[in-house]
Amino acid sequence: MMAASSSLSAMQLDALREVANIGAGHAATALSQMTGHSIMINVPALAVKGRDGIAELLESPHGEVAAVDVHMVGDLTGQTLLVFTHEAAKRLSGLLTGRPSEAGELNVLERSAVQEVGNILASAYLNALSQIVGGVLLPTPPRVYTGPGARVVGEAAARGPGSDPVLSINTRFTLEDGPEIRGTFLVLPDDESLARMLTALRV
Questions:
Q1: In the 8-state DSSP scheme, what is residue 52?
Q2: Strands, DSSP E only, in the chain?
Q3: 62 and 149 in contact (C-beta within 8 Å)?
Q4: Which CATH architecture has domain 10-200?
């Protein structure tokens, strides 16, 4: 098994961040077309941790979150998790639905909106990877989980391939001149898939 902190060099992280930027660009285009508004998605930073430290990658490990869980199948295997704080999930769903958010738990419409964002972002990321690595990468149907951040991502990761490392991609959504909405996009490839990604990126 790879050692999460020592196996990835600065050059490798830069290459993986470029893949994330390409995926973010595709996702922004899809969301803009869906909503009729100009939506930008920026990826300011990428970090790496061992699976045991996955909760440390969240903005609010002990606060309430909404996480969209999508597994990747095909020539590469692994998992993605798009995690928002409860407040950010509310704001994002309001942006997509055009309806003001109400206090309390995410309702059915809000969960559906957050789920669709996770699906679009995961699909765009996998498309960017497939263009670089070659072969076929497919997302499984997305699922939304809510609850305390550390518990939600820990339980979700336990359903994944069980390998290290975890790539954390800070993701920021901006609607034209509107407020920024921050999320954390976690990529959990299995060891073999990560090695293939790095080989294809020639780093």
A1: G
A2: 39-42, 46-49, 64-74, 78-85, 137-139, 143-148, 166-175, 180-189
A3: yes
A4: 3-Layer(aba) Sandwich (3.40)
Question: In Å, how far are 14, 15, 126, 175, 203 from 93, measured between CA atoms?
Answer: 31, 31, 23, 12, 38
Output the CA angle 156-73-121, nearest 5 degrees: 65
For the chain of 203 residues, list the mean pLDDT of each consecutive stretch of 10. 56 87 90 84 85 85 94 90 93 84 89 94 91 87 95 89 80 79 89 87 81
pTM of the entire predicted model: 0.88
Kindly state the helix (H) or strand (E) to which residue 8 belongs, with its residue range: none
Helix, strand, coil percent values for the chain (each to nearest 5): 45, 30, 30
Residues 6+ apart with CB under 8 A from 160: 71, 78, 79, 188
| HSE-up (13 A, CA, CB side) for residue 23 | 29
186's tokens: 């976690």
